[in-house]
Design brief:
233 residues; alpha+beta; Immunoglobulin-like; seven-stranded antiparallel beta sheet; five-stranded antiparallel beta sheet; 27% helix; elongated
Length: 233
């Protein structure tokens, strides 16, 4: 005699199927990260299915609860640091915006002559020298003006270029190359880096983690951290 079992008539099988809608809900909720609720659900299941003859020890329970609390605390701390970092970036951008229209001192191999103001800069001397020779060249490398600084002092030596060439005629406004050669008292020579003042046109905030950059007239983008000094003019 053949008998058959119908799912419709067997209450023991009711609900023993996969609900596609429920699957979609789980997929939407699960983002691949364990939350505090997930940890407590695992702990509840562990307690429900533990061996009654070998229950979980108190110290083990406390250790697991501590781990769950630490995991949740780290997650909250990460969110707090993210908010703090965003706040700091906004404050830096606000502070940097005050530099627009002012001049900043940066290290550069080029010097900007606006045609309206003097071009200024400085040279750091790390040991005694008899003379420093300053050369200003155009974009083709042709000499525009040169001048020397006799008996320069140790440390910072400021210089000013009025925008005139060797014939004392005003040159065209633009970007010029600058080179400095030092003759030391020990008989050696060396090329020195130059710091120049340049006006800030605008400020940019890099969303990719590059920090605040200043868009300096004629010299392009400069990191805020590379600014050595700020001047009103």
């Amino acid at each position: 005699m053949t008998s058959s079992v119908s799912n419709n008539n067997n209450s023991a099988l009711d609900g023993m199927y996969w609900d596609s809608k429920a699957k979609d809900k789980v997929a939407e909720k699960n983002n691949g990260a364990l939350t505090q609720e997930d940890f407590f659900a695992l702990l509840t299941q562990q307690l429900a299915f533990q061996d009654p003859t070998k229950p979980v020890e108190n110290d083990q329970m406390i250790a697991q609860m501590t781990n769950f609390t630490m995991a949740d605390g780290i997650g909250s701390l990460n969110k707090s640091f993210k908010g703090f970092a965003e706040s700091m970036s906004s404050n830096q951008a606000l502070q940097a915006s005050s530099l627009v229209g002012r001049s900043v001192l940066i290290q550069s191999k080029e010097l900007v002559f606006t045609g309206e103001t003097l071009s200024r800069g400085s040279i750091e001397l790390d040991k005694p020298a008899n003379m420093m020779q300053v050369r200003i060249e155009n974009e083709k490398g042709e000499l525009v003006r040169s001048f020397s600084v006799e008996n320069p002092k140790m440390g910072k030596n400021d210089f000013v270029w009025d925008g005139t060439d060797a014939n004392d005629e005003i040159v065209t406004a633009g970007v010029y190359k600058i080179k400095v050669e030092a003759s030391y008292t020990d008989g050696t020579n060396a090329s020195l880096p130059v710091n120049v003042y340049a006006p800030v046109g605008s400020v940019s905030m890099n969303n990719a983690g590059g920090g605040i950059t200043l868009n300096v007239l004629g010299l392009g983008a400069v990191k805020l951290s590379d600014v050595l000094e700020v001047s009103y003019s």
